[in-house]
Amino acid sequence: MRGKKALLRIIEVVFAILIIAGASVYLYSQQSKNTGIGEQVYSIEESILREVSSNSEFRKSILSEDSEGIAQINAFIEPKIPKSMNFTTKVCPPNDVCGMPFYIEGKEIYAKETFISATLTAYSPKKFKIFMWAK
After folding, report:
1. N or C end: fewer C-beta atoms under 10 angstroms in the chain?
2. Contact in structure between 109 and 131 (CB atoms under 8 Å)
C-alpha cells in the first residue's frame, strides 16, 4: 500500500515538473518572438533616420520646423515602413524629452531619434524622432 502511494506521488511530481517546464519554454519562445520584431523595427527606424539626416532639404525643414517640409519627410518615410506598421514623427528642442504627440493604449511603441545640429548657414539644433507601432 505504501509503495503504491509513493509511486503515485513520484508520478505526480514528474507531471508537475513537466507542466512547469512546458509553460516556461512556451513563455520564453513568445518573449523571444517579440524581441525579434523590435530589433527589425529599430533597424528600419535607424536606416530612415540616417537617410533623413543626410538629406540637406530634410535637414533644413527640420531645423526651421517647416510643416510642409515635415509633411514631405513623412511622405518620404511612409513607403519605407512595413504595411503592418503605423508611424508618426516629431521635431523638438535638444533638451526636450520629445514624447509621442498622442497616446496609443495597448500598443508597443518603438521610438528612435537623431540629432540635427546645423546646416551650412544656420545653427539651431533640433531632435527628430520617429515612433512606430503595429496597426
Report:
1. N
2. yes
Give dist(CA 37, CA 43) in Å, integer: 10
Exposed (0-12), middle (13-18) or buried (19+): which is 14, by Cβ within 10 Å? exposed
Residue 1 CB-half CA count within 13 A:
0
Residue 51 CA to residue 54 CA, distance in Å, equals: 5
Place of cell 526636450: 96
Instruction: For the chain, give every domain's residue range.
Output: 2-134
Q: For residue range 117-135, what is the model confidence (pLDDT) as tens digits?
A: 877 777 889 999 999 998 8
What's 43's DSSP letter? H
State pLDDT tens for residues 56-81.
899 989 988 888 999 999 999 999 99
Question: What gap in Å lies between CA 22 and CA 26, rounded to an integer?
Answer: 6
d(CA 41, CA 132): 8
